[in-house]
Amino acid sequence: MATIGREVRPVSYPRGEVRASDFRVVEVDLRPPRPGEVLVRNTWTSVDAALRLRLREEAPPGYFPAFPLEQPMDGIMTVGEVVESHADGFNPGDTVWHASGWRDYALVEAERPALGGVGTLTKLDVRGAPPQAYLGPLGANGLTAYAGLQVAGLREGDVVWVSAAAGAVGSLVVQLAKIGGAQVIGSAGSADKVRHLVADLGVDAAFNYKDGPLPDLLREVAPDGIDVYFDNVGGTHLEVALGALRRAGRVAICGMISEYAAPKPPPGPGNLMLAVTKGLTIRGYRASYHTHLLPEMSRRMGTWLREGRIRHRETVVDGLAQAPAALAALLRGDNTGKTLVRIEDLPHREGVAHRFDQRQS
Ligand SMILES: NC(=O)c1ccc[n+]([C@@H]2O[C@H](COP(=O)([O-])OP(=O)(O)OC[C@H]3O[C@@H](n4cnc5c(N)ncnc54)[C@H](OP(=O)(O)O)[C@@H]3O)[C@@H](O)[C@H]2O)c1
Asked: How many CB atoms neighbour CB 70 within 10 A?
């Protein structure tokens, strides 16, 4: 029997801010799955900062390709339930993750690698964690945070600054760095987020980067400098970090969200010579380069979540059609923790944002 699905498709590339009018929702007839394929009813789909990098004519060289206009958006992490399976190892009712997000039904080729291996169809164990946790701490975000601290060569006693620290990746990084024995400073864009970082996530110090000149704000909480900068923001944040890093300091460049909407890449940090004078190590990375760490990360993260040593917050938006608005809100900073779209189009729920803390039991 044919299934009618709905997909969010980009119709124009945003100039500056992402707008709802840059997208439309279309209905599609899905054919039955072929051998090797499964049909999945998606229940939760991910909203990620880096989607902005693909909503333009060309994505940065070496990155995932730009989303073609008027086509489904392939390469977005999603969880759902298998409805029909013609692939070995998958059965109706299984909870899975895959990378055909921003739609309510997806035909997925079981063996086909997706998102550099992070998003290949995978059966999930939802006995100890809700499905959407696999889009956050138990999934790609967890891997990004976990691998990033290895990239940074985290050592016990390091003073670590994490930017965008109250977001999906940042909120995990600060807690993993604490578990690793670091002294952790988090920065974020509101007083509420600063409170959340200190009160809920246990950072040693936090500041709102909008409260004054960034070098002063950082100096106040790290008067003797920092050993590691975990960069989610780029731009001025990176430049200020280079100034604050001590000799042989390290930078893990995870992302540069402050630059994603810029029509042309802005010039790099003006003080890069400090990398020479201080003997700094600056390493960029992608989670998909570290998929070998996934089993170890999910095992350890699962334990820390159950023990309450890692906490995570979700910003949930209801309704597939609200995915573009959820992305726009994330890029504005109107999110805390992991941003998710719940694909259950109960009419009274469309567009309502909920926030809640989630501690695994
Ligand atoms: N390397 C990888 O494999 C990988 C994988 C996943 C994500 N990432 C990167 O990780 C970073 C976080 O991504 P996410 O998906 O977890 O998003 P997120 O942190 O949940 O949300 C993005 C946050 O960035 C902050 N922000 C937005 N514009 C900013 C600006 N101009 N200056 C400073 N902060 C700004 C906002 O918080 P405030 O209120 O604090 O401004 C917003 O909440 C991004 O750079 C992303 O590209 C990298």
From this structure: 11
